[in-house]
From TrEMBL:
The keyword tRNA-binding does not apply. It comes from the Bacteria. Belongs to the peptidase M20 family. InterPro entries: Amidase_Cbmase, Bact_exopeptidase_dim_dom, Peptidase_M20. This is M20 family metallo-hydrolase. The lineage of its organism: Bacteria, Bacillati, Actinomycetota, Actinomycetes, Micrococcales.
């Protein structure tokens, strides 16, 4: 490979693919919704598999729905270089989060073919299943299955209607009982590189065209279950009631206060539910779901301890009994410095100065980094908006990112 070799992606193909996937959305939901394991998600992933085959890859779909395409290298016994992302979206999401990385990964294979390059290492292109998570509270489903960290307890986790994650996966035509077979061996993998939109404002503010990620946030999710006492709303004085919703209100503000005090940390509440929707009943129970994120594991643990303590304070204030249940903790994932240096060099070969940055959004790279040296290439997001219909990245930025992804793969292949 030389710096001058044309490794630019075919912009028209990227644009057409993006337009096609943008049409495979649930029109009953706002924004651009292709929710994991939905009918539209299944259709999108079938299309992705078809595109992989047209790009010359051999495809398979594993037991949780990961779509995997292989291009055999000249040394099939060398560990594979993995590129990919996810094509599911949050409900009410946008058209770029994950999708850019999946289209980009396929375009790497197409570009290598156009350029007549057969890599030494096999190239593995992946569209991970349900990165965005589900009402059952499990994120990064496909990459966790591949990393062997998706537990039976999580597959049995149910939403408020009793549907388990295993039911969801089965409903999309897969076999969650066979999750053990999804696991990849670290020895088989040389590197993982994921192209993604930044989803935040930093690159735009800095005028950066290409980002290379240093680390990805850690996440800790929780459920706060609050028990109060069901009583008559008209006859129970304000000093005698035990109202779980008031405790929950304190919990919400505690999330905000604790996260704001923690430097780079953030905290968000997802859903607040109560045992009664009526204004003339003090409900007996309430439930709050939320998450904290931090670049440091110690920071995450500190946030957990502080929230546990705040829940006790709220209980004593409102005469309630709360239980905080912490879900799976994703430790912050540090991107591999050597591989990141190759991505920086690849950016330079494509004519861009790479900007190093932290990711406050989580990614499949978190799970992959436990299996192989991993890094991420970012392209800017307009106004830093993401997980909303306004999410936007110019095609020119996407194309730049894909070229840098292709060049990073070739650098890693030669390393
Ligand atoms: O939740 C996240 O950060 C990601 O976008 N899935
Ligand atoms: Mn994403
Ligand atoms: Mn996302
Ligand atoms: Mn991702």
């Amino acid at each position: 490979m030389t710096r001058s070799q044309n490794l630019a992606p075919e912009g028209d193909w990227v644009q057409e693919g993006w337009t096609h996937l943008s049409g495979l959305v649930d029109t009953d939901l706002p924004g651009w919704s292709r929710v994991g394991f939905s009918e539209q998600d299944v259709a999108g992933r079938d299309w992705v598999a078809q595109q992989m085959r047209q790009a010359g890859l051999t495809t398979r779909v594993d037991a949780v729905g990961n779509v995997i395409g292989m291009l055999e290298g000249t040394n099939p016994s060398a560990p594979a270089i993995v590129v990919g992302s996810h094509s599911d979206t949050v409900p009410g999401g946008g058209r770029f989060d994950g999708i850019v990385g999946v289209l980009g990964a396929i375009e790497v294979a197409r570009t290598l073919r156009r350029a007549g390059i057969r890599p030494t290492h096999s190239l593995m292109v992946v569209d991970f299943a349900n990165e965005e998570g589900n009402p059952q509270g499990v994120k990064l489903v496909g990459s966790r299955a591949a990393a062997g960290t998706l537990s039976a307890t999580e597959l049995a986790a149910a939403d408020s209607e009793g549907t388990t994650l295993a039911d969801l996966i089965t409903g999309a035509g897969h076999q969650p009982d066979a999750v053990a077979g999804c696991r990849w061996k670290a020895d088989d993998l040389a590197a993982y590189v994921e192209l993604h939109i930044e989803q935040g404002p930093v690159m735009e503010e800095q005028g950066a065209e290409i980002g290379v990620v240093t680390r990805v946030c850690g996440i800790s999710t929780f459920v706060l279950d609050i028990e109060g006492r069901r009583d008559h709303a008209g006859t129970t004085s304000m000093t005698k009631r035990s109202d779980p919703l008031c405790c929950a209100a304190d919990g919400i503000l505690a999330v905000q206060r604790i996260a704001a005090a923690g430097g780079d940390s953030v905290g968000t509440v997802g859903e607040l539910t109560s045992a009664s929707p009526l204004t003339n009943v003090i409900p007996e129970t309430a439930r709050l779901t939320g998450e904290f994120r931090s670049p440091e594991l110690a920071g995450l643990k500190q946030l957990q301890a502080e929230f546990d303590a705040e829940a006790k304070v709220a209980d004593s204030r409102h005469r309630t009994r709360s239980t905080v249940t912490w879900g799976h903790t994703d430790a912050p994932a540090i991107m591999d410095e050597q591989l990141s240096a190759l991505a920086v060099r690849a950016a330079s070969a494509a004519g861009h100065e790479a900007f190093r940055l932290y990711s406050g959004a989580t990614h499949d790279s978190v799970e992959m980094s436990a299996l192989a040296p991993s890094t991420m290439i970012f392209v800017p997001s307009r106004d830093g908006r993401s997980h909303c219909p306004e999410e936007w990245t110019d095609l020119a930025d996407v194309e730049r990112g894909i070229e840098v992804l292709t060049r990073t793969v070739l650098e890693a292949d030669a390393a």
